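This part of the workshop introduces the protein records we will be handling. Each record describes a single protein and holds just a pair of labelled lines. Instead of coordinates, the fold is spelled out as a row of discrete tokens. To make this concrete, we reproduce a full record directly below:
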Amino acid sequence: MPFVSWSLRSVLAVLLASPFAMAQQLALKPEQQSELLELVAKDKAAARQFARVKAEADEALPASPNPVKIIESEGKLKTDPGKMATTKSLADMRKIEALGWAFAVSGDARYGSKAKEFVLAWARVNEPQGDPINETNLEPVLVGYDLTQAIFPADERGIVEAWLRKIAGTLIERQKKKTKASSFNNWQSHRLKMLGLCGWLLQDKALIERAVSGYREQITNNLLPDGSSFDFHERDALHYHCYDLEPLLSLATAAKQQGIDLYDHVGSNGASLGKAVEFLVPYCYGSKTHAEFVNSKVEFDRKRAEAGQGEFAIGHPFDPKEGLEVLEMASRFDERFALVVAGIKGKKTARCSSWQMVLNEVRR
């Protein structure tokens, strides 16, 4: 018995032949969308993962958007009122992404319409400030827009695209005023990710080139030949090594969708993103351990620990599960990392063990 009804698949076949499919190039190419539908229809593990996505989307259908004017997260403790308001608003991110994927797979107009409502609310209310640590949180809105943009009329596309240009513009402008370290630490990784995603959504060649060339410079400036990163040494934490790699992997994935290979780029110093992911592996297998933040050079890490934020407690052991997102994203490029994912999850195989792993199947 198929997991998607034949009548629905017939509807989706028409959908795939429409301009809707041609609009999806960043998250899914049309042929990848077709493969995804077949995978969800025929593979029990993929169907289970989509069921989870769809359940989140169903919960979001009666919800109203809760955009925040200014995202306040970077450099603030959890108890800060601005950060608390931001955290509450950022619950929209999971809703937007789930709605977008549910629309892409099911073709149900309810999901597309609700995703559009959320995306437009954020585009109309949010005012980017150029802080990459704050603005990186908006990635799911960009993914949701990419998955649904064909149902946006021209005037609404204009609203969203003006917002995307403001995100990119403020990121570039604020970079000119920041310290040297923020031009090559994790700030730059998140900045480049957002510039690249905005660039491809806008089809802005200058933004795309800035992100692509910036990525190549970042590999040399931020990563070391042994796979470690500036952020690992600066913060003495694998938590920040992962936080540095996640946006680079997101950017590399988007680039690969456009036929640009960033993942395999080797810096002038011999560093590469692949080596940086490999650096994590012994800590995720458990053959190595690391006490987090013990020798961090950043005072804010101590402030968070003193405030009782357990994930930043000085000396707590790195949890291999913190590396899952990096390893799952990297599995898109190197299937060896899927073995580590399976080990962390206690499974025989990592295939279709999360929505990211499902997407890896159709993006290869």
